[in-house]
Design brief:
With 646 residues, the protein is α+β, with helices and mostly antiparallel strands. Helices cover 48% and strands 11% of the residues. The two termini are 39 Å apart.
């Protein structure tokens, strides 16, 4: 892990990063007397300037809201950065090479000089794309924007551009500006083919994807022409600058409103962000080709505030949360599935979580076109608590007119209520669930929720074992939950298999069979273990582990990919003692563990297929029935072969 930045380097950054220049990028400053400047505070709304900057002493202070500090404090506050990130950001701006104590290396995967070159390449590319939008070849792009209600001013405000259809238009432009082929390849702006390098984006509308600091680190591109056989939306690949789990489109435009309103609205696309902002919802952002996860929550948390922050939302329980996260979903099955996924991630959020559902199925861009900006604002204003939405969506799958349907719905909904993070909200949702079910006996509903709660993994508390934990056998030791990441129940045999598989992959990657890398994303049922599996995949899987050559580097790579709340769990899995440590038996043990996980996946798939066959009518749809039956036979055969090879 990287050591601390040397103090003298931090001081050099403070000295060389002139506070009036940095603040001036966000605030219009005017003279307020000798050696003093003032402007409107970026941290609260005001009509008369009370925000003062004194460059000679390198400090700022707002006499309206009390915010103040040095240039690093300002960058942390205005851009939502941590201390080290703020130092590194400013060091790159002023050309200082940072040194790290304790033998650590910079956390950035690229040295500052190279990072600045990649940033500059993106800046030049953005300018090129924007200029191309006004050319005759971009007529289809301009028509696309116009049809969705966006004029040239809107396109300019959001930096929308056009990538020409030629194979090397951008590449030739960047080479003419002095960028090398190696730099272009590292930037992700070009792709490598059998015949050399070529522009990654061709014949597409492009949106710049920026960090919270406003620096462009990637692009999202929308297909325009039928002859384009690529995906509808194409993003920059993972690079030293661009990590899709760490970026939010529109965050640079939304950050000030997010800080002021302590709210973020998460939409699904670039045009949705544009429509939201143009309708007066300036807190809208979108993920870039991935679900909203813990790393996104970390970015948002710094801007909307943590639990207990001043100005937070007050819950029925009296607990204060830092703000609101509002997800916009369609009212269809896909929207409900997305909401359920958000519910699974809810434990990573410190803000109260809501869902804004457009029942007609229109996305925000379509809603603005069809019904105007007022309808977009009304969509957000009519938000529903995420818990309520998930519970009601669960109930909709049952016939509540029958006793059997109500009992089935209770059994399905009770674990949802039990999974609500804020224990103070559970009694209220228990009462509401009773009413939604149409059951007179609230006590029976309360017992069902309590029963489900006892089966839920602990959240946030530090359980005290009934006996000395050090003397307990490994499988009987209570799981120690980490803040924000619920630990699965160790007594669950399925969760135990998943846990052990992750332990061996982190500790003994050289012995793990190659087919571990072929496991699908849903191979792990427990959300926490599934998140660790995703971090392992993001770190490069077994191929990367073996290339690194040692477990220390490998675990470090996984931790680097894991979100803030997940890292303690990765560390725990990496140091947990394995029940088999004899060298002569370790290979067989590792293979057996992974084989059990793979077989469990086959078994789950077989059960799903059998259930599907039972619900199908062979006479009504014989083709679909035969296809499902053939798939069942094939999966059963793969499971049988796995068992025979043991």
């Amino acid at each position: 892990m990287a050591g601390r930045i040397r103090r003298e380097d931090v001081e050099a950054v403070r000295e060389r990063a002139h506070i009036d220049e940095i603040v001036g990028q966000h605030v219009t400053l005017k003279s307020a007397g000798v050696g003093s400047l003032k402007g409107l505070c970026p941290f609260h709304d005001e009509r008369s300037p009370s925000f003062h900057v004194r460059p000679q002493v390198g400090r700022y202070h707002c006499f309206g809201c009390g915010e103040g500090g040095d240039v690093l404090d300002f960058v942390q506050k205005v851009d939502g950065l941590g201390f080290s990130e703020a130092v590194e950001y400013l060091a790159a701006k002023v050309g200082i090479q940072l040194r790290y104590e304790e033998g650590g290396a910079p956390r950035s995967t690229e040295e500052p000089g190279k990072r600045r070159r990649l940033i500059e390449a993106h800046k030049v590319a953005e300018e090129f794309y924007r200029e191309q939008l006004s050319t005759p070849g971009a007529a289809a792009g301009r028509a696309f924007l116009s049809e969705r209600g966006f004029d040239r001013t809107a396109a300019a405000d959001f930096g929308v551009g056009f990538a020409p259809q030629g194979w090397d238009s951008l590449m030739r432009h960047l080479r003419g500006r002095g960028f090398t082929e190696a730099e272009l390849t590292a930037s992700g702006l070009v792709s490598q083919g059998q015949r050399g390098v070529y522009d990654r984006f061709r014949g597409r509308l492009v949106w710049p994807i920026r960090e919270v600091t406003g620096e462009t680190v990637g692009f999202g591109a929308r297909r325009l022409f039928e002859e384009d056989q690529g995906p509808k939306y194409l993003n920059t690949p993972e690079t030293a600058l661009y990590k899709k789990s760490h970026v939010l489109y529109g965050i640079d435009l939304a950050k000030r409103d997010m800080q002021r309103d302590r709210r973020v609205v998460v939409v699904e696309g670039y045009t949705d962000v544009m429509a939201m902002h143009l309708s007066g919802v300036g807190t809208a952002v979108a993920t870039c080709g991935t679900a909203f996860g813990s790393d996104h929550a970390r970015i948002v948390r710094r801007l909307v505030g943590d639990s207990g922050s001043t100005g937070g939302v007050q819950l029925a329980s009296g607990a204060s949360v830092g703000g609101e996260i509002i997800f916009t979903f369609d009212g269809d099955a896909a929207g409900q599935k997305a909401a359920l996924r958000a519910f699974g991630e809810d434990q990573t959020f410190t803000a109260q979580t809501f869902v804004a559902v457009e029942r007609s199925g229109l996305d925000p861009c379509e809603l603005r076109q069809a019904k105007g900006p007022d309808a977009v604002r009304a969509l957000v204003a009519g938000r529903t608590p995420l818990y309520e939405f998930v519970i009601k969506s669960t109930l909709e799958t049952f016939d509540l007119r029958t006793a059997e349907g109500r009992i089935g719905a209770l059994r399905a909904a009770a674990p949802v209520v039990a999974g609500i993070r804020d224990a103070g909200l559970r009694p209220e949702y228990t009462r509401m669930l009773t009413g939604w079910l149409g059951i007179d006996d609230e006590e029976s509903v309360r017992r069902a929720v309590q029963g489900a709660t006892s089966r839920q993994p602990s959240r946030g508390a530090d359980p005290r074992p009934a006996r000395d934990e050090r003397a307990a056998p490994r499988d009987e030791r209570p799981a120690q939950p980490q803040p924000g990441m619920a630990q699965p129940d160790r007594r669950d045999p399925v969760a135990q298999i998943e846990r052990t598989a992750l332990e061996v992959v982190l500790q003994q990657p050289a012995l793990v069979p190659d087919d571990f890398d072929d496991l699908p994303t849903d191979a792990f049922g427990a959300p926490a273990y599934r998140a660790v599996h995703e971090a392992i995949r993001a770190a490069g899987g077994l191929v990367a582990a073996r290339a690194l050559g040692n477990a220390t580097a490998w675990v470090g790579a996984v931790i680097e990919e894991a979100g803030e709340n997940l890292r303690p769990l990765v560390t725990e899995l990496a140091v947990a003692p394995l029940p088999e440590d004899r060298p002569e038996s370790l290979v067989g043990y590792v293979k057996g563990v992974v084989r059990s996980l793979v077989e469990m996946g086959f078994t789950r798939h077989i059960a799903e297929l059998r259930g599907r066959l039972q619900r199908m009518d062979a006479e009504v749809d014989p083709v679909a029935y035969r296809a499902a039956y053939a798939e069942l036979v094939e999966v059963e055969g793969r499971r049988r072969n796995l068992r025979e090879s043991a």
